[in-house]
Amino acid sequence: MPSPTSRFSLVSRRAVLEGAGMAAVLGLAACASDEQALRGDTSRAATAGTTASAASTARATAAGSAAAGGGATGPLLPAAAKATIAFTYAAATSSGGGGKGGVVRNPYIAVWIEDATGRLVKTVALWYLAGKGDEWLNELARYYSLASRDRTPTSGTKAPGAYTLTWDGTDSSKSRVTAGPYHVCLESAREHGPYGLVRQAVTFGATPFTTPLDPAQELTAVTVTYAVA
Questions:
Q1: Domain match, 160 and 115 both
Q2: Which has fewest Cβ within 10 Å: 14, 193, 216, 221?
Q3: What pLDDT, in 10s, does the model give residues 154-174?
Q4: 205 and 154, same structural domain?
Q5: pTM
Q6: What percent of the chain has pLDDT over 70?
Q7: Which of 178, 46, 169, 56 is nearest to 117 (CA)?
């Protein structure tokens, strides 16, 4: 007759089996918890990455707009936007040789756009003969102080008359500027003649307009016509 299994052995075996079962359950629970945690961490990382990417894109867009608009942010001017600046230069007196009654000296003239803070956005026209009249260029006092890096003439001087110039809505780097307030500026100076400065605020945006600017000395009949199409 076989010897009966001792009660101690049965109890011990049951304990081992129960312990193994419990360990397996705990192990599965731990794995499930780790997997959930991993999914949670991955989800949070993905969300954080998306948020960071969106923030980075927003910063880049704002920086691009700021660069295009001289520090301002907002929509760019329409692609077809342009401003036509018309004026007449009418010499009030003749001059020549330091006295009256001589020929009229052709003026130095600068036409440019400033932003709302007074920074030079773009030179539209600069009339003088490079190399022969550089020493007198500082007679265009405001333009000379703003255009400290590049004072390349767009043409030689011109006789008194009516002229039309166009600004294409870009800055000196040929980037479109943002919509908003600007200044249209014209400055004139000539030998033995008066000095004149026209500087008037306008708003370039989505709305076309035509507005007269106040004359200054020999700069007369000044108007700005803004078109967006």
A1: yes
A2: 14
A3: 999 999 999 999 999 999 999
A4: yes
A5: 0.68
A6: 65
A7: 178
